[in-house]
Amino acid sequence: MSGHKSFSSLSRRGFILTASMAGLPFDRAMAASGDYATFLAGVRREAEDKGVPASIVRRALALTAEPNAKVIRLDHHQPEFSLTWAQYRDKVLSAAKVAAGKEAVKKNHSLFQEISSHYGVDVEGISGIWGLESFYGRITGGFYIVDALATLAFEGRRASFFRSELMKALQILGDGEIAPEEMKGSYAGAMGQPQFMPSAYLTYAQSFPAGGAKDIWNSVPDVLASIANYLARCGWKQGEPWGQEIQVPEALPQADLGRKNERSLGAWMKAGVRRADGSAFARTDISGAVLRPDGAGGQAFMVYHNFNVFRRYNPSDFYALAAGLLGNMTA
After folding, report:
1. How far apart (Å, rounded) are the C-alpha atoms in residues 300 and 15?
2. What is the SS3 assignment for 162?
3. Domain spanning 9-78+141-191, CATH class
4. How distant, in Å, are the alpha carbons of 77, 103, 134, 208, 245 from that of 224?
5. Residue range 229-278, pLDDT digits in tens
6. Residue 217, SS3 per DSSP
7. pTM for this model (two decimals)
């Protein structure tokens, strides 16, 4: 859920020019652009004014004595290339990830069923998100969240957003949900196995069964329940498919496609659209939209309501397709 990719090229060029003129390495120039200690003092006062215990604030901010150069480097130098759907699919839906997903779902079969029933979210939806976000708990990020968020809030790019997330992270610590040294995640501040930002944690994180800390870092029940709660509150419809692969006539104009161009399956069949095996859809009254991410000749999908719920987790068609496919392959 992280992936904050917007960045002002003007401000970036201006900063790099300033660093170059000063003759300082990138990380030292960053630290020299403002007084980090003063910044942290302001954070400390604000957090304590909001009721976070002073001892917790001091312990958390002790993890970030200076801006984290690696966080800055990763934030400033995110890859700016585009993948086709086929390339993205092959990258994120690896055989190893599918195998790990099947094993995780089998190992936690009863738990998945219980959580699916409790939240009204299909196992496939939960499994797909868990796998994409953290490889079923194998890859969660090793950055101290307070360090990463403080660095990004101090840096200036989207400073207000990251300062708000930093305050929410300190609130979570103040509530005793986790120790500062154990609150880890991505360089952009996404936490634990569901990769929740602190604001998402406060809104969606669950303890399962209810009671106690919401441990999205180590507790598989809490992780699965938190993902299920997120999808449920975003409108997941249990028992309904997210989508399916289909056949689309190559001559069908790309302008007629896309997730916002919904038609009944009956109307799509009149346009030559069929199920993947070439057969007719069983029902003609259901509405869906056709995606052909790589254009004529590439894979095509009919997508339904739950596809858009996946997009609430990450607003990308590629992500939502991958989540749905991975869920289907593992659950």
Report:
1. 44
2. helix
3. mainly alpha
4. 32, 15, 12, 9, 27
5. 999 999 999 999 999 999 999 889 988 999 999 999 999 999 999 999 99
6. coil
7. 0.88
